[in-house]
From TrEMBL:
Subunit comment: Homohexamer (dimer of homotrimers).
Family affiliation: Belongs to the peptidase M17 family.
InterPro entries recorded: Leucine_aapep/pepB (IPR011356), Macro_dom-like (IPR043472), Peptidase_M17_C (IPR000819), Peptidase_M17_leu_NH2_pept (IPR023042), Peptidase_M17_N (IPR008283)
Biological process (GO), any one: proteolysis
Record GO cellular component, one term: cytoplasm
Gene Ontology MF: a single term: metalloaminopeptidase activity
Listed name of the protein: Leucine aminopeptidase 2, chloroplastic
Domain Cytosol aminopeptidase: start-end pairs: 433-440
Entry keywords, A to Z: Aminopeptidase, Hydrolase, Manganese, Metal-binding, Protease, Stress response
Organism: Sesamum alatum
Entry keyword ATP-binding: no
Catalytic reaction(s) noted: Release of N-terminal proline from a peptide; Release of an N-terminal amino acid, Xaa-|-Yaa-, in which Xaa is preferably Leu, but may be other amino acids including Pro although not Arg or Lys, and Yaa may be Pro. Amino acid amides and methyl esters are also readily hydrolyzed, but rates on arylamides are exceedingly low
CDD domains the record matches: Peptidase_M17
Length: 581
């Protein structure tokens, strides 16, 4: 075997008739057993630069593991229009009416008191009141009934329960999703949506109501079929929203809804994509496509390993070291098409395209290793927001979108428990758990973000199971030392309808993060795990920069639908717009 490892520059590969192979340059113990060579290949070792290129080619090839490539499917293309016409005169596939429990009230003759339902019921010969009574339809959230009407202008009339959700945005988005579900089941291509009590909505809120309905319809229509052998295209092509007014303001809001939905759908697709398709390099390519598509406002910079070494990103590179797929540090920069920049922001997203846990490998029930493709959900939110903002083009604000993309794998080159990493701000970290890797990548990303001269940073990460235990699967945890920033972002989430809850940054918990040999350890144990993770990230943020960490480990994924949610994108877009002039 010593001959094989010798520094010979020429090796001969020989095969016998029994398919036994021998590597040989000088006489060896195998020579006397060797049959005449059937074929021989002369192999000369290439220079180091060539070998590096081959390793890169191997890494790129890893993206085709399993020979899986997504089908090319266009996102839903639905035209929206706001109209003021009599609901009884509308013609099309489905007329959907959103109703509350109050709208469903009837008089002593079992006739609707609501004027819109009264008119429809009269045209249908009392069928609407009859069916609602038979099916015990009361207008509660989640209830719906669809009636087939042959021979009339509308092929079907549907009643959709609105219930009493705390957020009007969520209520009307759910209405749109319910209509989309009805359109799927009936293969409807055009629908109209109205509210039984639209007159009760203040005029200034009607455009945002129409926008929420449109958002729900687009997102409800979308199905991620890219990895199915027989993907289906949605039938729904046009939606008319009746009774909420017309004009440029509502048209602008409908366009805004579609722009944000395109970002949400993009984010969902990124999270849904398996790790053998969405490698760090593939994620970087998607970011570059955004910059190319909206080149009037975006520029892209992708840093490779050597460039990250020059910036002393030891914390990030330590996580990436074990993977055959090289890391890619992504930096998109949005600059408005004209006018003065008054505010500089940064959005930082955790970008682990797969997390095995490293040497502290994820094992046992509930470890969810099979779902660790979603560990880049923070980067999906950041890039989804970038895509939406590239279309909206807000004025007066510069935004940096930053992702330290990599995989956390296991190999002889990977970081070990007990290793000490040095981040780009010079702070040292003793790795006491390789499965607390996301914060290690974010450390260098946050330092980089601060170096861009930004005033405010929001980072999003699927960071801790502790946050899921605390807040459940639908609420994200928010951590920030800044009350002003908390007010801004929580206000944006109220508009978007996404649920955020501010948690304390208890400084006394930092004691559990102290190391005997380095500046800190990377995890402080199970108690208060979401808080200590946020305290860790704080060590890498300039004290003059307002900063917020959002832990989206719970709401990034919908277990029931087995699909990504696109969480965080609409809130980020709203927040950026609040900071624009």
């Amino acid at each position: 075997m010593a001959a094989i490892r010798a520094a010979s520059t020429s090796l001969t590969l020989l095969a016998s008739t029994s398919s036994s192979c021998y590597y040989h340059s000088r006489p060896s113990i195998f020579t006397k057993f060797r049959f005449g060579p059937i074929w021989a290949v002369s192999l000369t070792l290439p220079p180091l630069s060539s070998r590096r290129a081959k390793r890169m080619a191997h890494s790129i090839a890893r993206a085709t593991l399993g020979l899986t490539q997504p089908n090319k499917i266009d996102p839903p293309k639905i035209s929206f229009a706001a109209k003021e016409i009599d609901v009884g005169e509308w013609k099309g596939d489905i007329l959907a009416v959103g109703v509350t429990e109050k709208d469903m009230a009837k008089d002593e003759n079992s006739k609707f008191k609501n004027s819109v339902l009264q008119k429809l019921d009269s045209k249908l010969g009392g069928l609407l009141s009859e069916v609602s009574s038979e099916e015990d339809f009361t207008g509660k959230a989640g209830q719906s009934t669809i009636i087939r009407l042959p021979g009339l202008g509308s092929k079907r009339v549907g009643l959709i329960g609105l219930g009493s959700a705390a957020s009007p945005t969520v209520t009307y988005r759910n209405l749109g999703e319910a209509v989309a579900a009805a359109a799927k089941s009936t293969q409807a291509s055009n629908v109209a949506i109205t509210l039984a009590s639209s007159e009760g909505i203040p005029a200034e809120l009607k455009p945002s109501t129409a926008s929420a309905i449109a958002s729900g319809t687009v997102l409800g229509t979308f199905d991620d079929n890219r990895f199915k052998s027989e993907p289906k295209q949605p039938a729904l092509k046009s939606v008319e929203i009746l009774g909420l007014g017309t004009g440029p303001e509502i048209e602008k809001k409908l366009k805004y809804a579609q722009d944000v939905c395109s970002g949400i759908i993009f984010g969902k697709e990124l999270v849904n994509a398996p790790a053998n398709v969405l490698t760090p390099g593939a994620l970087a390519s998607e970011a570059e496509k955004i910059a190319s598509e909206y080149s009037d406002v975006f520029s892209a910079k992708i840093l490779d390993v050597e460039q990250c070494k020059e910036l002393k990103m030891g914390s990030y590179l330590g996580v990436a070291a074990a993977s055959a797929n090289p890391p890619h540090f992504i930096h998109l920069c949005y600059k408005p098409p004209g006018g003065e920049v008054k505010t500089k922001l940064a959005l930082v997203g955790k970008g682990l395209t797969f997390d095995s846990g490293g040497y502290n490998i994820k094992t046992g029930p509930g470890c969810s290793i099979e779902l660790m493709k979603f560990d880049m959900g923070g980067s999906a939110a950041v890039l989804g927001a970038a895509k939406a903002l590239g279309q909206i083009k807000p004025a007066g604000v510069e935004v940096h979108f930053i992702v330290a993309a990599c995989e956390n794998m296991i190999s002889g080159t990977g970081m070990r428990p007990g290793d000490i990493l040095t981040a780009s701000n010079g702070k040292t970290i003793e790795v006491n758990n390789t499965d607390a890797e996301g914060r290690l990548t974010l450390a260098d990303a946050l330092v980089y973000a601060c170096n861009q001269g930004v005033e405010k940073i929001v980072d999003l990460a699927t960071l801790t199971g502790a946050c899921v235990v605390a807040l459940g699967p639908s609420i994200a945890g928010v951590f920030t030392p800044s009350d002003d920033l908390a007010k801004e972002v929580l206000g944006a989430s109220e508009v978007s309808g996404e649920k955020l809850w501010r948690l304390p940054m208890e400084e006394s918990y930092w004691d559990s993060m102290k190391s005997g040999v380095a500046d800190m350890v990377n995890t402080g144990g199970r108690q208060g795990g979401a808080i200590t993770a946020a305290l860790f990230l704080k060590q890498f943020v300039d004290e003059n920069v307002q900063w917020m960490h959002i832990d989206i480990a719970g709401p990034v994924w919908n277990d029931k639908k087995k699909n990504a949610t696109g969480f965080g994108i609409s809130t980020l877009v709203e927040w950026v717009l609040k900071n624009s002039s």
